[in-house]
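Researcher: Next entry in the queue.
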Amino acid sequence: MTNYFRLYRFGITPWERYGQAATASIAAVLGREEIERHRPLGRALDLGCGRGQFTPELARRGWDAVGIDIVPAAIETAKGKDIPGVTYLVGDVTRLQLADHGRFDFFLDIGCFQGFDAGQRLGEGRGVSQLANPGATLLILAFGPTRLRSLIGGVSRAEVEAAFPDWELLAVDPADTAGLGWPMNKTSPQWYRLRYSSGHPIDPD
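Model: Structure for this entry, 205 residues:
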């Protein structure tokens, strides 16, 4: 798993540069999530939100937005922006707890899932499923698997589906590579869109 604690400490945050360069393409995929829904849109969880780059956009669009990240310093910076309609939490997205977070209608994962090993991916899948309302959707932006996977992350379609067995894969679309430097721009990043299609698992004691 990428050592985000260290990267934030040294100011190495290439994912934030990508978010700025790909604003239009990210806005387009977020807009798609609103078409099938009535307002109010419901609750959205930004998984691995970092310093709150995308969570405020979810709130602006009408979601009750929550951002979660494991790095306390990143969450403190995000909270410092003081944007109405946004809540931030320190937490591990591979160990999500229903009692702490409640249920959600939409989940956004931009570059988080791709950095996990198989066990952590399954952990995120279990947690997201536990927190999902019926009909909830999930958007994952992830690099494809390459020879540099151990350094920059990446997942295959099969690995996405394996982590979310209770979800229907609705679409797999190529992502914009603007703002991704080498070698990330050679990883064939994809947007995975899934819908929760199973009943809720039994809540743990």
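Model: The mean pLDDT is 84.
Researcher: Noted, moving on.
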